[in-house]
Amino acid sequence: MADAMRVRIALLGFGPVGRSFAEIVADRASELERRYGVWLSITAAVDRTGGVVDPDGLDAGLLVQAKRAGSVAGYPGKGRLGLGSLEALSLSHADIALEATSVNLKDGEPGLTHVRMALSSGRHVVIANKAPLVLAYPELLSLARRYGVALKFSATLGGSLPTYNLGARDLAGCVIERVDAILNGTSHYILSRMNAGDPYETALREAQRLEIAERDPRLDVEGWDAASKLVILANSILNIPARLEDIAVTGITHLGREDLPLTMLGVALRRPDGGYTLKVGPERLSQDHPLAHLPPLSMGIVFHTDLVGPMAITVNERGPKPTAAAMLRDVLEIVRKEKK
Question: What CATH number has the domain spanning 163-316?
Answer without folding.
Answer: 3.30.360.10
